[in-house]
Amino acid sequence: MNPKLIIILVAAALAIAAPFFVYPVLLMTILCFVIFACSFNLLLGYTGLLCFGHAMFFGGAAYITGQILKTTSISVEVAILCGALAAGLLGLVIGQLSIRRQGIQFAMITLAFSQLVYFVLLQMEFTGGENGMQGIPRNPLFGLVEVRDSFSFYYVILALSAVAVFAFYRIVHSPFGEVLKAIRDNEARVESLGFDPEKFKLVAFTLSATMAGLAGAMKATVFQFATLTDLSWPVSGEVILMTLLGGLGTLTGPMFGAAIIILMNDHLAGFGEWALIGQGVILLVVIVLFRRGFVGEIGALMKYLARRGKKPSAALVTAKPVVEQSR
Amino acid sequence: MFENITSQLLFGQILLGLINGSFYAMLSMGLAIIFGLMNVVNFAHGAQYMLGAFVAWLLLTFLGVPYWGALVIAPIAVALLGMLMERLLLRRLQNLDHLYGLLATYAVSLIVEGLIRQRYGSTGIPYDNPMPGGMNLGFMFLPYYRVWVVVFSLVTCIGTWLLIEHTKLGAYLRAANENPNIVEAFGINVPKMVTLTYGFGVGLAALSGVLAAPIYQVSPSMGSNVMIVVFAVVVIGGMGSIVGAMATGYMLGIVEGLTKVLYPEAASVVIFLFMIVALFMRPSGIFSGRSEGAR
């Protein structure tokens, strides 16, 4: 049997059994951030774009989904999708403007945009301003199945996450994904081959925003409230940390990164500022010592060992770390 | 909607805008200088500004050093910390993608802000105004300290600009910005210059922090709030353009102040709206000049 298939089956079995042993809300939080980290990875890891304002899609979609659920009787899964699509639309508009500048400026511009979205939503009535949006109901699934308790809702979130991860996998392994990686590695060459990098970047940005929106919309239904915190720039920083910690441009790295950071936040929640300080320290250590992230480092180690077992000359062709280039 | 605006309110907000603009100008100038030479977007700039204010407050509270002493000591102390950080951290990253410099300084700002917040709490601490009082101009009341801030920051900005554009030191700096290898071949110690430049930019941030302490309260989040606005200012002015950063800083401070009078709801977003317009009209920044073209 295919070893990949075995891993997937084991992971699926673990995910299905997990809520019997672990608090479901914690698991759902992890899943939301796993999807959020994947969306960010699509941009930075696979396209080489550092968006420092990803929280605007995450937090924005949370409000949209919350508002739909509060004011209508639309079923919960449709409301989540609407939130994701709204984030995608926002991504299309903001991407259009932001990709005009490259590299570091792209990061600064997206940060400024996220702050703009933050202030706009702060002043809008329906968001509840500083108090946030409270009491978001979980309307029945497909209009039929009640999912009010966390245990059954976990499986809804798990199913949505599985679909999102599968979509992410398909995107990065499609011809479109290959072009994205080529843009990341050498944009000029991609352009010379007749592709329009800007168009690809815009599509990637929109897809990533949609996925980040999906994550935020799910989070709003899990906690049944939406707050400005989810929109604020520290959340944008958090998703960068998750992605880098796990391994930029690796499929599973950011997922592990998200799980680790959420668990760390959960453990340090009672210790004031230490969660944030810990994040800063981890980010520094990752940047200085292992930029491939731990999944990336493990992968590199395995490749190295495999090559050493074969021909010694093949070991020269080691994979270059993502986004790393000399100036 | 305009008939109920008194001259008191209007000029008061313009003055406040000018004050904010002074801080935007000084901070974005420091950012532009650091970016110009090192290609690092110094995300820790806000934290260093906050540290300046905090050191001033610590000096006053625990050592009894007055404002005027702090105005000299705090920037130097914070600049030394910055140079240490450049040596130990940023130097290791200089050959990597510039994104790592941004992320590393972001990590530092998280740690610094977190530690200060953990130790001193997140509420603002008032800092006594060293120049109380003011004069009544008839149409508005003009506090002395605010005049001092505007004048002092203008002098600092113009002084820095003269230093960079019209002295030999500045010429080395601009040359190293264009091609560090050739400048090094002329016998100039470029790594040392990078350290000193970073220290200078950080010192400017800390100096703004000391200036800001009596106006705003000293609080751990004072830096991160202003930081993002300053990023937008730098984007509008054109990255690495020192004059652009300065002029845009003052201009947007005043625009923000006027918006507070005319349409208060938009005051917090007007700078970002400006950024969108600037991105449309001049994708490389309204003051982008020589130093921008290379990138």
TrEMBL record, chain A:
Protein keywords: Cell membrane, Membrane, Transmembrane, Transmembrane helix
InterPro entries with a match to the protein in the record: ABC_transp_permease, LivM-like
GO molecular function: branched-chain amino acid transmembrane transporter activity
UniProt topology in membrane: Multi-pass membrane protein
Superkingdom to which the source organism belongs: Bacteria
Pfam families: BPD_transp_2
A Gene Ontology term for the protein's cellular component: plasma membrane
Keyword Transmembrane helix: yes
Transmembrane segments: 49-68, 74-94, 106-124, 152-172, 202-227, 239-262, 274-294
Compartments where found: Cell membrane
Name of the protein this chain belongs to: Branched-chain amino acid ABC transporter permease
UniProtKB/TrEMBL annotation, chain B:
Protein name, per record: Branched-chain amino acid ABC transporter permease
Keyword entries, A-Z: Amino-acid transport, Cell membrane, Membrane, Transmembrane, Transmembrane helix, Transport
Topology with respect to the bilayer: Multi-pass membrane protein
Family designation: Belongs to the binding-protein-dependent transport system permease family. LivHM subfamily.
CDD domains xrefs: TM_PBP1_LivH_like (cd06582)
Subcellular locations according to the entry: Cell membrane
One GO CC term, this protein: plasma membrane
Annotated InterPro entries: ABC_transp_permease, BCAA_transport_permease
